[in-house]
Amino acid sequence: MATHFAVVLLTSLLALATLANCNVEGDILYEQMQAWEDPSNVLQSWDPTLPDPCTWFHVFCSSDGSVVRVDLGKAGISGPLIPELGGLQHLQYLELYANNITGSIPATLGNLTSLISLHLYDNLLTGAIPASLGAVRTLRYLYEFWSHYKYYTKMKK
Q: Which segment of the chain is annotated as a signal peptide (predicted)?
């Protein structure tokens, strides 16, 4: 009887651990959502109680359920980028152009080893481009990245 109970308990704990780990990408995106202001409610479908973020608007997943694209260009969002975004291991496209994203770019974005496109232009970013992004070999598009930053720097002088 004790052995049967131990097996059931262990199986239950493993199942719970698997469920908790399944939504890591959703947890990261939900944490990012909480750091932003979203006056147009474009992120209203970002519900952390769903099993994964693949059903959320503006989030696209691969066939295995990994987040590969976040497309929030011209969404009217504002606020900082959180360092935890670097944990989106399979992310290929991060499209956040023409918003009011503030602060610096987290160096942890250099952990996005599948990243192909990073569009952050027309935001209110400050600071240098993290050197860690230079190590992302898949990164092909950093489109007009610092057009606003250059303007902002000239205005501050």
A: 1-22
